[in-house]
From TrEMBL:
Transmembrane portions of the chain: 231-252, 321-340, 352-372, 384-404, 416-443, 455-482, 488-506
Membrane topology: Multi-pass membrane protein
Name of the featured protein: Folate-biopterin transporter 8
Main location: membrane
GO cellular component, one term: membrane
InterPro entries membership: BT1, FBT, MFS_trans_sf
Lineage: Eukaryota, Viridiplantae, Streptophyta, Embryophyta, Tracheophyta
Family membership noted in the UniProt record: Belongs to the major facilitator superfamily. Phosphate:H(+) symporter (TC 2.A.1.9) family. Belongs to the major facilitator superfamily. Folate-biopterin transporter (TC 2.A.71) family.
Cell compartments where the protein resides: Membrane
Biased composition (Basic residues): 521-535
UniProtKB keywords: Membrane, Transmembrane, Transmembrane helix, Transport
Length: 555
């Protein structure tokens, strides 16, 4: 009998593990094995002919025989071991780590020139609180057009790349604007020129942020690294800590805002050098030829990207959490300008105290980001966001404590209270966005990362601007002006009540992240997965053949 299909040239047919050897099975496997070897010798004899061969009733065709020991080897090949502690930093590209880490660090360090600019407008230009807040929010208008920058970044390649060139363009615009504020006197003294510089620097910042967010989302999806967003958030938090710390120190010692503008322009120049030296193909990102073999015009490519973006945004799993996070920001009137003027003009707090309060907030943000990266993914997203929203609403009442001087009645000086709690609400508001950034980065369709992430950033920025305009209107309606802050406690209470309203429609937030769902699916019973492997099928087939041989012998 010929059973040549069962013979493997690379591995034995039935390698038996001594630890799992069964005497009852060996009793039947030994005759089977000997008959197979005899059949192999007969097949090598040229006298054998086809009519002398007795075909079995069934025959295996190229079976794959896997023993339990082999199965463990294949499982280890399919799932290579990773060092959970150092796996992230070992797997990320070094150039990507530098470009992403330093880029987000500079983005967080932007608080240094902005702290100087707010101090310059409040003390040197003597702006009213509503005017100061109006300049702050109007300067953010270029960030509303982030979807356009994202579509251009997805569709239009510059020198064979579509992420890093946009980072370089955005950084260059920021260098020009902050350098003008530092070196040209008219730019920092005349309100129209100052407003133009603010618009240009925010335009450059928005372009660079869109490209960086898309780069992080695309690289994280390609290399299956969902923790890349947390790494970028931590880098921005570190930049915010150092920026606020150095900003408060320089304002306390020198009060020279122009020198701070010039220092930040020098830091931006270093970032520009890094981005110009980094080649996008070294990061392993797709090249233009990988997207399409047919050359498309720019207008057709932009139209296609816009259609893909609208299709992605209309998906329920993206639209519902997007509407919730936007509504949770837009309906809360922001009184940051009024509170800043109250702290510096009414309480006469040193700029160093305000800067150190932001340092405390950024340190807390860094700690929360690390905690979320370690443990936050195991907490249901809806529950986490609900807790954070309630804490944000409660932290707004800390400004009421400072305005009503309740801290002084408790024996806590204004400097100590402002240092510990002044930046807490802003920190919690920033941390609330992290789960949504991770969510949308995981849900972004391939080739639409820049468009979707920029659309999210634009929606958040637009909601912040509308919230700021609501705050300006509320301050004007309540009569909060320079030297008259008697109605500020009422405005803070309105903020607190408005911050509680989004909890009523928190059902729009998904219960968990997509990555957590995949992890739970991978955590199913290993035994059920092993039973579905082809090795089990091979064993069952061999045992079936063995039973057939026994029945033939008995006949």
């Amino acid at each position: 009998m010929m059973i040549s299909a069962l013979i493997s040239s690379t591995s034995p047919l039935l390698p038996i593990n001594p630890r799992t050897q069964n005497p009852l099975k060996d009793k039947y496997l030994c005759p089977l094995k000997s008959s197979i070897l005899c059949s192999q010798q007969q097949n090598l004899n040229p006298k054998n002919t086809m009519n002398q061969r007795r075909k079995p009733k069934f025959q295996l065709i190229n079976p794959v025989i896997i023993t339990p020991s082999h199965e463990r080897i294949y499982q280890n090949k399919d799932k290579p071991k990773k060092d959970l502690k150092n796996g992230f930093f070992q797997s990320i590209n070094h150039q990507m780590m530098v470009l992403c880490g330093f880029g987000y660090y500079v983005n967080g360090f932007r608080c240094l020139p902005w702290l100087a600019l707010n101090f310059h407008m409040a003390h040197n230009l003597h702006m009213q609180p509503s005017t100061l807040q109006l300049v702050q929010n109007s300067g953010n208008l270029p960030m509303v057009a982030k979807p356009l920058y994202g579509i251009l970044s997805d569709a239009l390649y510059i020198g064979g790349a579509h992420r890093i060139p946009y980072v370089s363009i955005g950084v260059l615009l920021q260098v020009l604007s902050w350098g003008s504020l530092a070196l040209i006197p008219v730019a920092s003294e005349a309100l129209p020129a100052l407003m133009a510089c603010v618009l240009v620097t925010n335009l450059g910042a928005s372009i660079a942020e869109v490209a960086k967010d898309a780069l992080v989302a695309e690289y994280g999806q390609k290399n299956k690294m969902p923790g890349l967003q947390s790494y970028a958030y931590m880098a921005a938090a570190v930049g915010g800590v150092l920026g606020n710390l150095l900003g408060g120190f320089f304002l306390l010692k020198t009060q020279q805002t122009k020198s701070m503008f010039l220092a930040f322009a020098a830091l931006l120049t270093l970032q520009l050098t890094i981005s110009l030296k980094t080649r996008e193909e070294s990061l392993g990102l797709p090249q233009p030829s990988n997207y399409s073999l047919v050359r498309e015009s720019i207008s057709e490519s932009i139209r296609k990207r816009y259609s893909d973006l609208m299709m992605a945004v209309r998906e329920e799993r993206i639209l519902r959490p997007l509407l919730w996070v936007v509504s949770s920001i837009v309906m809360i009137p922001t009184l940051s300008g009024s509170i800043f003027c109250y702290q510096t003009q009414s309480l006469n707090l040193d700029p160093s105290i305000i800067g150190m309060s932001r340092v405390t907030g950024q340190l807390l943000l860094l700690s929360l980001t690390l905690l979320y990266d370690r443990l936050g993914r195991s907490i249901p997203m809806r529950k986490l966001v609900g807790i954070v929203q309630f804490l944000y609403a409660s932290s707004l009442l800390l400004d009421l404590v400072l305005v009503k001087q309740i801290n002084v009645q408790l024996g806590i000086p204004n400097e100590v209270f402002a240092l510990c709690f002044s930046g807490l609400a802003e920190t919690i508001a920033q941390f609330k966005l992290l789960p949504f950034l991770v969510l949308f980065a995981n849900l972004a369709p391939s080739g639409c990362e820049g468009s979707l992430m920029s659309f999210l950033a634009s929606a958040l920025c637009l909601s912040s601007i509308i919230s700021g305009f609501f705050g300006v209107g509320l301050a004007s309606f309540l009569g909060i002006t320079y030297g008259d802050y008697s109605s500020l406690p009422l405005g803070i209470m309105i903020q607190f009540l408005a911050a509680l309203l989004p909890l009523y429609w928190i059902d729009n937030v998904p219960m968990s992240q997509p990555a957590a769902e995949k992890a739970r699916n991978r955590g199913r019973s290993k035994r059920s997965r092993r039973n579905r492997r082809i090795g089990k099928v091979g064993f069952d087939s061999v045992y079936s053949y063995r039973r057939e041989r026994e029945s033939e012998v008995q006949r």
